Amino acid sequence: MNNEVNIFAENLKYLREKKGLSRKQLGAKMYVSHSTIARWENGTRLPDAVMILRLSKFLGTDANMLLQLAAQSDESPNVIMVDDNGVILSDSLVVVEEVLPNANITGFIWPQEAIDYAKANRVDLAILDIEMGNSSGLELCRTLLEINPTTNVVFLTAYADYSLDAWKTEASGFILKPLTPEGVKEQLDKLRYPFSGR
Asked: Does the predicted model carry a pTM greater than 0.90?
């Protein structure tokens, strides 16, 4: 572990403990799993810039300081998940991380945050809820593909009726909730633009 990574890991652990949060509690607030927090704190992984900004805001620290201590690895694929239900999002992120342990996985409740992330980062896989309050995952899919036509989009929904609408987009696949490791693996084998990360 290099010195910058070590300092980042130590600072993150200190800030989390100062807030009186467990890794699981911080993970729930950031929409990542507690094992992701553990990897950040032991220096085996680094969060991306979007996540560092989230962490700094939540932990009440200087974002520039955290950004200077961490650098995103371009070797790991970027996976995003967008669902307006925070509980479903948190549970689903754990499933995706189990299948893609080497990926940078970030969850979003708000579609606009996912769009901003996609403008700043290459997104290899986007797992999108179709019905998100006033927003549509179908429309978000179109926007993400305008940003990067090689983004793989997989829809996740509780309603099978949406499958026909989903296939009218350039999506790679469709999964019915609840998300399972088997469902994710099956979709990964069907991606239009395969990537490594398993």
From this structure: no
